[in-house]
Amino acid sequence: MPDMWQLITRPGILIYLNASFAVSTARAKLNWLEKDHAEQLRRLSHARAHANLLIETDDLTPEGVLQRALDFLVGIGKQ
């Protein structure tokens, strides 16, 4: 169900965090194959397409991800 994120909740702002296969499996210690990661991306494609902000997280620390999200949200608040 590609739009499940909309059925669970109707977010006013949607921030999509993206990570590559290598980074995703290392961070979460997942025992996934690349096809598993690809399936996850397929399932999340609707959310990604409707996101207000997409953050590529591979080269960011958790603090860096947070800062990008906060910068975006502060920018919205100034509009």
| C-alpha end-to-end distance | 34 Å
Could you state the order of secondary-structure elements as H and E?
A: HEHHEH
Please tally the β strands and state the result: 2
Rg from Cα = 14 Å
Tell me about the biggest sheet? 2 strands, parallel
Strand content: 5-15%
Count the helices. How many? Answer: 4
Structural class: mainly alpha
Amount of helix: 55-70%
Mean pLDDT: 90
Shape type: flat
Task: Give a quick summary of the entry.
By secondary structure, the chain is mainly α. It has helices spanning 4-8, 21-28, 34-50, 62-77, and strands at 15-18, 53-56. The protein has one domain.
What do these coordinates show?
The chain is mainly alpha-helical. It has one domain (about 5-75). It has four helices and two strands. The protein has helices spanning about 5-10, 20-30, 35-50, 60-75, and strands spanning about 15-20, 55. Strands 1-2 form a two-stranded parallel ribbon. The termini are far apart. The model has no long low-confidence stretch (mean pLDDT about 90).
Write the layout of secondary structure elements.
Elements lengths: L3 H5 L6 E4 L2 H8 L5 H17 L2 E4 L5 H16 L2
Please supply descriptive tags for the structure shown above.
flat, 4 helices, 79 residues, two-stranded parallel sheet, mainly alpha
